[in-house]
Amino acid sequence: MSAEELAPLRAELGGPLPDGFNELDDPQALLLTQALRRARERRASGLDESVEDALTLVPALTREPVRRMLFR
Amino acid sequence: MDTLRGRAETLKLARLLDVEPRQLAFLEELPVDDVRLFRERVVAALFDEDPARLDRIAALTKLLPATVAAGIAQKALGPRLAAALAGRLEPARAADIIDRLPAEFTARCCHHVDPRRIAAIMGRLDDDIVVRIALVLAERGDHLTMGRFVGHLGDSALKSILPQLDETTLLRTGFVIDHPERLGHIVELLDDERISAVIAAAADHDLWPEAMAVASMAAGEQRARIASLTAAQPETRLDSLIHATAEQDLWESLLPIVSLLSESELRAVAALPALRDPTVLSGLVRGVVATGLWADFLPMVGVLPPTARRIVARVAGSLDDAGLDALARGADKENLWELVHPLVELMDDPTRERLSELPTFRARRAG
């Protein structure tokens, strides 16, 4: 694959791809790109959910200020 | 060996991305070091995202006594967030909190911890907690997470853990160990009886690829020990090893291990019924042509029973000119002509004529 065709995977990875990955075909590169994107989204949403769960233990009146302080 | 390393790398990446390993099977065709490098970059992409937010939460825990922080981690944060924070804390502080958590909870966190932070944290944990975490992970069948950790364990922890793990866990964890350079030392901590039990488990549970990978990753002396203890297994088990190798085309992994055997051990292996099967022998020869492992293969040919040797000669004789020339170059490079001549004598006349016209044979005659 050309460097241009691998650009979405490179962007998702946030850095260069190892040389061997130039051998990937279109569906393979797409699969990896989507899998990595989903993994990043899952990790981010999983952390968000954990944070929200944790905030339920903070008294309601102070919850918003605490949220702003931590996640501004 | 690269085939098995490729499989292990694919398993690790699939776990990281939470996809079925078979979806990533195409990665086994790429250079294994490239896949490992890609996995390391995926770790960075996943764990380096939004560190500021985690750092702010981590900073708050510094204000709390470790016991209180451990209670909050368990009751409020949950394993995912607790693991993310552990990756942002000073390792000593993370270890201080982990020491106060139940092993069951910590084991659930382990899967979510940034793999790059494991070494620093593990080095500060008491053996007692490390052992309990390892046993919970083993009970959960979480070999991939164990594989991330095991390379960082000290001897005293290993000596407590290893006797408590069953043989299949040892094989499956060893297969995916993140620091293979430690494997030889870990094997050294197992006595002969235990290693023999592990090898038996490989035969009884279809785990020969895992066993071959472990043997290949072990350092020289330990690899030779595994090879010898394998050769001492009953014939039916060794036959299953040969068949598994043939079915999965893993000769590149097995032959370097076989080459470490003494002559008497090699004779015992060469006499196996599986090595009289023309299909197996044909795959073996083609595997050697593909990998160039002539120095590992030809000594075994020398001790094969006559029928098997004739089959090898016939299969070798059916190779195209490039394959035959590769054989000749391999023999020349490793100075193995003494082992090639008996094989050539078993070939038919047209094949011998064809051989004599190949560049390497001509050069040898001229030399």
What would your notes on this structure say?
- The complex is a heterodimer of chains A (72) and B (367).
- With 72 residues, chain A is mostly helical.
- Chain A has one domain (7-71).
- Chain A is 68% helix and 0% strand.
- Chain A is built from three helices and no strands.
- Chain A has helices spanning 7-13, 26-55, 60-71.
- In chain A, helix 1 (7-13) packs parallel to helix 2.
- The model of chain A has no long low-confidence stretch (mean pLDDT 86).
- Chain B is an all-alpha fold.
- Among the domains of chain B are: 127-233; 263-367.
- Chain B contains 25 helices and no strands.
- The mean pLDDT of chain B is 91.
- The longest helix of chain B is centred in the N-terminal third of the chain and has 21 residues, at 66-86.
- The interface between A and B is medium-sized, with 32 and 35 residues.
Briefly say what this structure is.
Chain A contains three helices and no strands. Chain A has 72 residues and is an all-alpha fold. The A-B interface holds A 12-15, 17-21, 23-24, 28, 31-32, 35-36, 38-40, 42-44, 46-47, 50-51, 53-54, 57, 69-71 and B 16-19, 23-24, 26, 29-31, 33-35, 37-38, 41-42, 44-46, 49-50, 53-54, 56-57, 60, 72, 75-78, 80-81, 84.
